[in-house]
Amino acid sequence: MNKIELIPRVVENKDWITILFLLSVTIVVITKTAFENRFSDFINLLFNNKYLKVYKDSSNLMTWFTILLFVVQLLSLSLFVQLVLTYFGYTTKTNWITYIQIFTFLSFFILSKFLIEKIIATSFDIESFIEQFNLFKVSYRTYIGLILLPVNMALYYTDFLNKQIIIVVFGILLIINTITYLASLRNYQNLLFSKMFYFILYICALEIAPYYFMYYAITNR
User: Fold this and answer.
1) CB-based contact 65:31 (threshold 8 Å)
2) Which of 16 and 2 is assigned the larger pLDDT?
3) DSSP single-letter state for residue 3
4) Residue 1: what pLDDT?
5) Which of 13, 55, 113, 214 registers the highest number of CB atoms within 10 A of its CB?
6) Which is more confident, 81 or 12?
7) Residue 164: which residues within 8 A CB-CB, separation 6 or more?
8) Would you say 183 and 52 are in contact if contact means Cβ atoms under 8 Å apart?
9) What phi and psi values does residue 110 have, to the nearest 5 degrees?
10) C-beta separation of 41 from 51 below 8 A
């Protein structure tokens, strides 16, 4: 008599990723409809600095336009991180639990870093500059999130992801971050020169150290 061994078939739910893409696109459409002129200027951010000149006031950091696109940025960046982890064999691209963990970690990391920056800026009396600087960062990094959205769609529904694509995307992230710092230095050079020591301390403590320790922890694990 043949022995029959039953093997449970585990089917991962793939519907959540489609819902995620639809949610992201819906938020972008709502933002474009509600803030048509601002969104148009924002789309041209990499080609001219009109957006940064028009919406340079720090109060724009907490508007619905910024908040909605910040959510898209988190959704998009979290998925890209999951795709990279999938490529290196740490998870699967349909694992929604891993995605929630990544999304939660990134949200906590970014918001905690923002609050710490506010505290340090107030202590060093450079609050006005840091608010402007954060607006710069949020603008460029939100732009990255929008760029990653169609890239994530292509990489998720195909098998094109490889080491070269990962390097290119991270290279683009590095270039945009560099542009942010250079633009900030140019626009606020008078203020920076008077508080150069505090700015260097800020850069080392909150712009370099957190990412270094994160990289160190991930690579060693």
Assistant:
1) yes
2) 16
3) P
4) 47
5) 55
6) 81
7) none
8) yes
9) -70, -45
10) yes
CA neighbor of 132 nearest in space, from 57, 77, 195, 24: 57
The answer to whether residues 52 and 125 touch, using CB atoms and an 8 Å cutoff, is no
3 state DSSP class of 69: helix
Token pair belonging to 81: 């991180």
Tell me the mean pLDDT in the region 130-145.
80
Max CA separation in the chain (angstroms): 88
Tokens coding 206: 């909150």
The per-residue pLDDT of the chain, averaged, comes to 78
Q: Is 21 helix (H, G, I), strand (E, B) or coil?
A: helix
22 falls in which pLDDT band (50, 70, 90)? Answer: very high
Type of residue found at 78: S
Looking at residues 135-148, what average pLDDT do you find?
A: 83
Task: Give the burial class of 1: count Cβ atoms within 10 A of its Cβ; 0-12 exposed, 13-18 middle, 19 or more buried.
Answer: exposed
Collect contacts of 168-177 with beta carbons under 8 A, ≥24 apart. 169/80, 172/144, 172/147, 173/144, 176/46, 176/140, 176/141, 176/143, 176/144, 177/137, 177/140, 177/141
- pTM exceeds 0.90: no
Nearest to 140 by CA among 182, 109, 105, 81: 182
